[in-house]
Amino acid sequence: MSIHTQIGDWFDHFHAYPEVSWKEVETTKKISEILTAMNVKHHTFDDVTGVIAEIGEGERIIAVRADIDALWQEVDGTYQANHSCGHDANISMVLGALAYLQEQELGCRIRFIFQPAEEKGNGANSMIERGAVDGVSHLFGVHLRPKEEIPFGKISPAIHHGAAIFLEGKVNGIDAHGARPHQGKNALDPIFAIADYIKTIHFSPYEAYSAKLTKVQAGGESLNIIPGTATFGIDVRAQSNTVLKELRDRIEQGIHSIGQLHSVAIELEWSDYTPAAEVADEAMELAKEGILETFGEEAFAPAIVTSGSDDFHFYTIHRPDLKAAMIGIGADLGPGLHHPKMTFNYDALDMGAKVLATTLRKASYQS
Questions:
Q1: What stretch of H or E contains 283?
Q2: Which of 47, 158, 239, 304 is the most exposed place for a label (fewest CB within 10 A)?
Q3: Are the C-beta atoms of 312 and 142 separated by less than 8 Å?
Q4: What angle do CA 342, 356, 306 make, to 5 degrees?
Q5: HSE (CB half, 13 Å, CA atoms) of 326?
């Protein structure tokens, strides 16, 4: 079987059996089985999902990371695990790159990190804590890109992701009869005020940022009860880590003020912070050379700036000396990442694997 065909078969399997963050048990097992069949040394962990593998020899180590988890979302009226972010493609492209590299001479060891829980924003930290980037000089990632960023056939040497964080809140008011609102504290009123408030936060128009309500839950089946308790969620993003911190501070200050205005306690919990990208010029240049050598000038696309986020960038937060870049693969992907019916041109999988293999081979010879 050709590597091109094998990549497609791998994708079909992972797409058919998605698993959500921290529960990628069968995905981990399948990756391990594939690596065993390829005679690649690897190891798993007793306490978390994920796999780390290596090929090549020598003291020096470079690495590539693939995220392996799926989203939990509604598809055709049913909530289920779903690979609408393309992590099934990322696994397949990285395994494909490994297969291509097995046929080539390498200048150092190459580590393959199959990481859990990217969608939760903390899977990278679990791999960091278990030594995934210990001794690593260069780190690469790969991800399919939406058609509005780059079309099929184009490949970018770097993705400049933005920073993101989620806020979950709970309003603690008092239930009341619909005919006697003065006897309670309507939990929905402060939430509506929060929705209006976050639209009034402004920074320089040259900065990219956003904050928006993504979840509100309150009340029950009885429409004559004013709900005293409600929960809400806010998705917060910025292109820089500095702006994200200021945006977070202003949101928190405003919500506390709204709570005081409505005489209710509002509990807040921030979670799933992912930092903005720190792209190394040297890693991006190696990726560019990989694109040009593999597919020529006509396939090259400039670096991408996107408001999306990825916990890949925790690796460089932990190791500032790490030379890192994530390669973006044009795939005519639509309607968009995280859309329940997301699809793409499957020929992009082999293109991604080949470019990644060339980039890693080049990086393996860097001093």
A1: helix 281-295
A2: 47
A3: no
A4: 50
A5: 28
Q: Which residue has the higher pLDDT, 192 or 307?
A: 192
Question: CA 330 to CA 127: how far, in whole Å?
Answer: 28
Question: 10 Å Cβ neighbour count for 52?
Answer: 21
Q: What pLDDT sits at residue 121?
A: 80
pTM of the predicted model as reported, rounded to 2 decimal places? 0.85
What are the structure tokens assigned to 25, written together? 């048990």
pLDDT of 319 reads 95
Burial per residue of 150-160, b for 16 or more beta-carbon CB atoms within 10 angstroms, e otherwise: bebbbbbbbbb
> What letter would DSSP give residue 22?
T
Compute the distance between CA of residue 269 and CA of residue 90 in angstroms, rounded to an integer.
Answer: 31
Those residues with Cβ within 8 angstroms of residue 229's Cβ, 6 or more apart along the chain or in another chain:
170, 171, 172, 173, 175, 187, 218
118-139: pLDDT as tens digits: 998 889 999 999 999 999 999 9
Q: What angle do CA 169, 68, 16 make, to 5 degrees?
A: 105
Query: How far apart, in whole angstroms, are the C-alpha atoms of residue 10 and residue 96?
Result: 9
The residue type of 268 is L
Rounded CA-CA distance 208/218 in Å is 32
Q: Where, residue-wise, is CATH 3.40.630.10 in the chain?
A: 3-161+277-364
DSSP states of 50-108: -EEEEES-SS-EEEEEEE--BEEEEETTEEEEE-TTSHHHHHHHHHHHHHHHTTS--SS
Cα separation, 142 vs 329, in Å, equals: 7
Q: What residue has token string 């780190």? A: 139
In this structure, which topology does domain 163-274 adopt according to CATH? Alpha-Beta Plaits (3.30.70)
Which CATH superfamily includes the segment(s) 3-161+277-364? Zn peptidases (3.40.630.10)
Apex 289 CA angle, 101 and 84, nearest 5: 70
CATH 3.30.70.360 domain extents, the chain:
163-274
| Cβ pair 139, 283 in contact under 8 A | yes
- Tokens representing 360 are 């890693």
Amino acid occupying residue 53: A
User: In the 8-state DSSP scheme, what is residue 277?
Assistant: P
Q: Which tokens hold the place of 68?
A: 């392996």
Structure tokens belonging to residue 280: 């190394």
